[in-house]
Design the sequence.
């Protein structure tokens, strides 16, 4: 019995000595991602993944920078090298009024002041005999077309070149009657002194559409214009006469088209 007790006591003593010789237990410190990875293959795989991610990010950023650079270069090219078309007009015949309407014969002078040829230049125009308040709206309406509504072939206009385009425009009787009624309403509303209600301002409004040879061929450039038809007074040099809807004939010698009016031309 005593021998068994001694063996048990000796075993406890030996276990206590063995436990005392063990190094103190340490808490495992957290490793930041793969820096503390002990397995070299795992560490290499994680480094490769990080490098691939950074390479992909750099590639995307480079593509964005190149795209922005290309866009900027295109915009710069368009502004500095593109064509700029201006337009003026001269009368080429008498103004005549009959049952068909009020007709004006003119010749447009289209000039390219830019540095590249303009292609497919077309003029869309009409006579406007309304009040000044509706003039800009009518000009915007005719320039709002995004495509060429007719099949007429356009002009190619080279830098510093001038292209001439003749046409005849007609204001229908209904438009002339509307202008007279507008004068009557204006006289009633503003209670002005009686005046000849057949007196009208005659404008040629329109839009010159064209494209840039080296630019986006789907993009239209536009020059909006409002040119006033003036009736000169032969008895008073530099003076003017009124244009009436009742005038049957106004001779060419008495006509002039003002290209430098307040409403002028506007290009984009």
Sequence:
């Amino acid at each position: 019995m005593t021998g068994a007790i001694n063996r048990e006591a000796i075993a406890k003593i030996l276990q206590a000595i063995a436990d005392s010789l063990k190094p103190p237990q340490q808490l495992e410190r957290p490793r930041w991602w793969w820096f503390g990875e002990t397995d070299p293959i795992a560490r290499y795989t994680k480094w490769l993944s990080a490098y691939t991610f950074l390479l992909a990010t750099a590639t995307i950023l480079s593509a964005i920078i190149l795209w922005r650079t290309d866009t900027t270069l295109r915009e710069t090219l368009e502004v500095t090298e593109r064509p700029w078309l201006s337009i003026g007009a001269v009368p080429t015949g008498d103004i005549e009024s009959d049952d068909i309407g009020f007709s004006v014969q003119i010749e447009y002078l289209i000039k390219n002041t830019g540095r590249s040829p303009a292609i497919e230049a077309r003029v869309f125009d009409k006579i406007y005999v309304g009040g000044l308040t509706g003039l800009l709206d009518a000009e915007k309406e005719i320039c709002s077309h995004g495509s060429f509504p007719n099949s007429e072939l356009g002009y190619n206009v080279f830098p510093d070149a001038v292209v001439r385009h003749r046409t005849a425009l007609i204001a229908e009787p209904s438009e002339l009657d509307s202008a007279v009624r507008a004068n009557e309403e204006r006289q009633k509303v503003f209670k002005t002194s009686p005046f000849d209600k057949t007196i009208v301002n005659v404008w040629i409004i329109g839009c010159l559409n064209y494209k840039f040879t080296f630019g986006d061929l789907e993009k239209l450039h536009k020059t909006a214009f409002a040119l006033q038809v003036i009736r000169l007074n032969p008895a008073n040099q530099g003076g003017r006469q009124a244009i009436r809807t009742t005038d049957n004939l106004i001779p060419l010698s008495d006509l002039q088209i003002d290209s430098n009016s307040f409403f002028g031309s506007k290009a984009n």
Remarks:
- The two ends are 116 Å apart (CA to CA).
- The longest strand covers residues 221-232.
- Residues 40-81 form the longest helix (42 residues).
- Residues 40-81 form one domain.
